[in-house]
Amino acid sequence: MACRKRQRFSPEVVGKTDFFDGLPDDLVISILCKLSSSAGCPSDFVNVLITCKRLNSLALHSLVLAKASHKMFAIKAKNWSESAHRLLKSCADAGNVEACYTLGMIRFYCLQNRGSGASLMAKAAINSHAPALYSLAVIQFNGSGGSKNDKDLRAGVALCARAAFLGHIDALRELGHCLQDGYGVRQNIAEGRRFLVQANARELAAVLSSTPTSNVPTRSWLTWSPHPIPHPNQRQPAVPGCPLLSDFGCNVPAPEAHPASRFLAEWFGSREREPGPGLRLCSHVGCGRPETRKHEFRRCSVCGAVNYCSRACQALDWKLRHKAECAPVERWLDEEGEAGEGNGAVDGDDVMIVDS
Question: Whole-prediction pTM value?
Answer without folding.
Answer: 0.79
